[in-house]
Design brief:
Length: about 100
Protein backbone atom coordinates (compact mmCIF):
# COMPACT_ATOMS: atom_id res chain seq x y z
CA UNK A 1 0.00 0.00 0.00
CA UNK A 2 1.32 3.44 -0.92
CA UNK A 3 1.06 6.40 1.39
CA UNK A 4 0.87 10.05 0.43
CA UNK A 5 0.88 13.19 2.53
CA UNK A 6 0.14 16.83 1.80
CA UNK A 7 0.94 19.83 3.94
CA UNK A 8 -2.10 21.44 5.55
CA UNK A 9 -3.20 24.75 4.09
CA UNK A 10 -4.39 25.87 7.50
CA UNK A 11 -4.50 24.54 11.04
CA UNK A 12 -7.97 23.84 12.43
CA UNK A 13 -8.94 23.29 16.05
CA UNK A 14 -9.28 19.61 16.98
CA UNK A 15 -13.00 20.06 17.69
CA UNK A 16 -13.71 21.70 14.30
CA UNK A 17 -16.35 19.80 12.33
CA UNK A 18 -18.44 20.01 9.17
CA UNK A 19 -21.31 21.72 10.98
CA UNK A 20 -18.97 24.55 12.00
CA UNK A 21 -17.55 24.63 8.48
CA UNK A 22 -21.07 25.19 7.13
CA UNK A 23 -21.84 27.91 9.70
CA UNK A 24 -18.54 29.63 8.85
CA UNK A 25 -19.39 29.51 5.15
CA UNK A 26 -22.76 31.10 5.89
CA UNK A 27 -21.05 33.87 7.88
CA UNK A 28 -18.82 34.65 4.88
CA UNK A 29 -21.86 35.11 2.66
CA UNK A 30 -24.94 32.95 2.32
CA UNK A 31 -25.75 33.66 -1.31
CA UNK A 32 -23.20 31.36 -2.92
CA UNK A 33 -24.66 28.13 -4.29
CA UNK A 34 -23.63 24.94 -2.51
CA UNK A 35 -25.80 22.47 -4.41
CA UNK A 36 -27.69 22.08 -7.66
CA UNK A 37 -30.91 20.11 -7.33
CA UNK A 38 -33.45 19.01 -9.89
CA UNK A 39 -36.96 20.23 -9.09
CA UNK A 40 -39.92 19.87 -11.45
CA UNK A 41 -37.59 18.78 -14.23
CA UNK A 42 -35.26 21.80 -14.03
CA UNK A 43 -31.97 22.36 -12.21
CA UNK A 44 -31.89 24.99 -9.44
CA UNK A 45 -29.06 26.35 -7.32
CA UNK A 46 -29.38 26.00 -3.55
CA UNK A 47 -27.61 28.80 -1.68
CA UNK A 48 -25.71 28.31 1.55
CA UNK A 49 -28.40 30.29 3.38
CA UNK A 50 -31.22 28.15 1.95
CA UNK A 51 -29.33 24.94 2.76
CA UNK A 52 -28.64 26.03 6.35
CA UNK A 53 -32.28 27.10 6.84
CA UNK A 54 -33.45 23.68 5.68
CA UNK A 55 -30.88 21.90 7.86
CA UNK A 56 -31.80 23.93 10.95
CA UNK A 57 -35.51 23.33 10.37
CA UNK A 58 -35.01 19.57 10.19
CA UNK A 59 -32.65 19.65 13.20
CA UNK A 60 -35.35 21.40 15.25
CA UNK A 61 -37.88 18.80 14.12
CA UNK A 62 -35.55 15.96 15.15
CA UNK A 63 -34.96 17.56 18.55
CA UNK A 64 -38.67 18.18 19.13
CA UNK A 65 -39.27 14.52 18.26
CA UNK A 66 -36.98 13.48 21.09
CA UNK A 67 -33.52 13.20 19.51
CA UNK A 68 -30.90 13.60 22.24
CA UNK A 69 -27.18 14.32 21.82
CA UNK A 70 -25.38 11.11 20.94
CA UNK A 71 -28.50 9.30 19.71
CA UNK A 72 -28.00 7.34 16.48
CA UNK A 73 -30.19 8.07 13.47
CA UNK A 74 -30.19 5.71 10.50
CA UNK A 75 -30.31 7.10 6.97
CA UNK A 76 -31.26 4.72 4.19
CA UNK A 77 -31.03 6.49 0.87
CA UNK A 78 -29.08 6.78 -2.32
CA UNK A 79 -26.54 9.60 -2.36
CA UNK A 80 -28.59 12.74 -2.99
CA UNK A 81 -29.27 16.27 -1.78
CA UNK A 82 -31.79 15.11 0.83
CA UNK A 83 -29.15 12.83 2.33
CA UNK A 84 -26.85 15.83 2.81
CA UNK A 85 -29.69 17.78 4.47
CA UNK A 86 -30.58 14.86 6.76
CA UNK A 87 -26.98 14.17 7.76
CA UNK A 88 -26.18 17.81 8.53
CA UNK A 89 -29.45 18.15 10.48
CA UNK A 90 -28.61 15.10 12.58
CA UNK A 91 -25.18 16.59 13.33
CA UNK A 92 -26.65 20.03 14.11
CA UNK A 93 -29.00 18.33 16.59
CA UNK A 94 -26.10 16.46 18.22
CA UNK A 95 -27.03 13.05 16.85
CA UNK A 96 -24.88 10.45 15.15
CA UNK A 97 -25.75 9.58 11.56
CA UNK A 98 -25.67 5.91 10.63
CA UNK A 99 -25.72 5.27 6.88
CA UNK A 100 -27.44 2.10 5.73
Amino acid sequence: MREAATELYTDLPEDYNTSQLLVDRLARGGGAPVYRVKRAGAWHDVSTAEFVDTVRGLAKTLMSSGLMPGDPVAIMSRTRYEWAVAEQAIWFAGGVSVPI
